[in-house]
Amino acid sequence: MSLHLQVIIASTRPGRIGSKIAHWFVEYAKKNSDFTVELVDLAEFKLPIYDEFDHPRNKNYKHQHTKTWSQSVEKADAYVFVAPEYNYSPTPALINAFNYVYQEWNYKPCSFVSYGGTSGGLRAAQAARLQATTLKMMPIPEGVSIPMVNTLISDDKFQTNDRIDHSAKAVLDELHRWAIALKSLR
User: Fold this and answer.
1) Domain containing 40: what range?
2) DSSP character for 120?
3) DSSP symbol at 57
4) Rounded distance, CA 88 to CA 123, Å?
5) Could you tell me if 115 and 123 are in contact, meaning their C-beta atoms sit under 8 angstroms apart?
6) Which CATH number does the domain housing residue 52 bear?
């Protein structure tokens, strides 16, 4: 069974390092999982603060940016959100992207590759997991936390290590199990 994983860059801030981490994770997932892997950059969608009239559960979208985002989210079987921590919280771009659609997220597993300072983005990932459950996603307990992320950027690339790779493998294995199990609910 071919399953599609989207690795979503959750920061849209200029100068972000999330794209470096996301590119590493995409390459790692291609070599270490049974998923078809796609990199998705929220910045490319240019979603304004939620501007649809109708509730997302009705899928009665009026704006092209919403329709494009809906099509992207719909095609995935699982998600990994590469997300920094902003003031102990998820990025506004990620929360906004969550809110744009509803059914497209339903019954799909997700995980987080969080990064930041000492906490490694764990507080933001935990808060985002709560919102993911309201969208009927299954946030798995496994995740990748990258503390002191700036120390792992060298020559404009993210430099992984054994601990991070081990966590990434656990995420991919568990996401795959859940993606298979939840497919029957969609």
Assistant:
1) 3-183
2) T
3) G
4) 5
5) no
6) 3.40.50.360
